[in-house]
Amino acid sequence: MRLVAIGRMKDKAELALVERYLKRLRPRLEIVELADGRGSPEEIKRREAQAILAAIPAQSFVIALDQDGQAHDSVAFAHAMQDWMAAGRAPCFIIGGAEGLDGAILDRADAAMSLGAMTWPHMLVRIMLVEQVYRAQAIVAGHPYHRAGRP
Ligand SMILES: C[S@@+](CC[C@H](N)C(=O)[O-])C[C@H]1O[C@@H](n2cnc3c(N)ncnc32)[C@H](O)[C@@H]1O
């Protein structure tokens, strides 16, 4: 599995949170960080899109993180991950930069996934996604990390 993300995560507290979940993931999630684009907002998105497209492995199931995408609950996400893997298409998640994702990425993506209607900073999205991937693996494994209790 791969995560292609715009921006270098430097903050130690953010890195520690990503590492907390990353080290537990099986299969592992490789994070590919790409430099922020330069120029006007449109140029930034276009340049970042070129780099993102080049970093997507062949055969992967591409999931663009986008606030207008489809919102899953954690169990549905876990089962979707299982289906992609079973089909031999390892997930490749994409997180945009400050300007968001270029339309070319949304066109290339096999799915667009939302973490809610609000706009989140990309580094927080990275942390939340890695936690949800770990939660998905816990759900599939029947690990008690995920408690399904609801009112
Ligand atoms: C700061 S946001 C970009 C905001 C940008 N104005 C836009 O409209 O996408 C950076 C990245 O974080 C991700 N992101 C932010 N909020 C999200 C949400 N609610 N659901 C899914 N991804 C989100 C997206 O990949 C986005 O490109």
Main attributes?
binds S-adenosylmethionine; 5 helices; five-stranded parallel β-sheet; alpha/beta; 151 residues; Alpha/beta knot
Any overview of this molecule?
With 151 residues, this protein is α/β, with parallel strands linked by helices. The chain contains five helices and five strands; from the N terminus they run βαβαβαβαβα. A five-stranded parallel sheet has the order 2-1-4-3-5. It is globular and about 45 Å long. The mean pLDDT is 96. The site of S-adenosylmethionine has 17 residues, from strand 3 and helix 5. Keywords: Cytoplasm, Methyltransferase, rRNA processing, S-adenosyl-L-methionine, Transferase. It holds the Pfam family SPOUT_MTase.
Write the layout of secondary structure elements.
Elements: E1 2-6, H1 12-22, E2 30-34, H2 41-54, E3 61-71, H3 74-86, E4 91-95, H4 103-108, E5 111-114, H5 122-141
Parallel strand pairs: 1-2, 1-4, 3-4, 3-5
Helix pairs in contact: 1-5, 3-5
Function: Specifically methylates the pseudouridine at position 1915 (m3Psi1915) in 23S rRNA.
Protein name: Ribosomal RNA large subunit methyltransferase H
EC number: 2.1.1.177
